[in-house]
Design brief:
Strand content: under 5%
Oligomer: single chain
Number of domains: 2
Radius of gyration: 23 Å
Structural class: mainly alpha
Order of helices and strands: HHHHHHHH
Number of helices: 8
Length: about 230
Amino acid sequence: LNKPEWYLTQVLMWIGNHAKFLDEKIQPILDKAGSSVNAGLEFSRGLVMLILEKLAADIPCLLYDDTLFCHLVDEVLFFERELYSVHGYLSSFPSCMHILSEESCFQRWLTVEKKFALQKMDSMLSSEAAWVSQYKDITDVDEMKVPDCAETFMTLLLVITDRYKNLPTASRKLQFLGLQKELVDDFRIRLTQVMKEETRASLGFRYCAILNAVNYIATVLADWADNV
């Protein structure tokens, strides 16, 4: 259960190792018979069906172990990326995202994603470098004077988007968007709390850093507004 990468990587290897044989030996036979079947894709589809069976059996066994469950999700997402980008798998075919979209699994994924995101926010705001810009010494890069915590937070949101963008249904994607909105509001509250501590020094370093953070986040969210 703690090594899903073993069978996921094995399947990717099988697909890669058989590609030339299927393309050069099997595909011409299908073409000659007038079939529209793509040998490589059908081979991939058959192996992915085995993966789906394996996942359906494994997920109930690790649903409440955060570490194992997170590791499984990470490995499945990596597997999916490789399958589509390297091996040309079709989005109309069955995929692991359908398993991750099933109610009990999906709700657990959302819960765990939120838990780890909040932990990340705790650590980024308690860091000594939270209010310092990573690029403070490079003037042409640092026009917005973005503090480290704001940049890390937006990267966190971007990573979450990247993880859920291939979910098969809009309703599931919207639930993840709801999580992101919660996180933005949580971050806003945290900034407000820090700002209240700094009101006596409204031209102070940290107060200005908070304003820069808010401006940066608002600007980036506006840029993302075109991303359906």
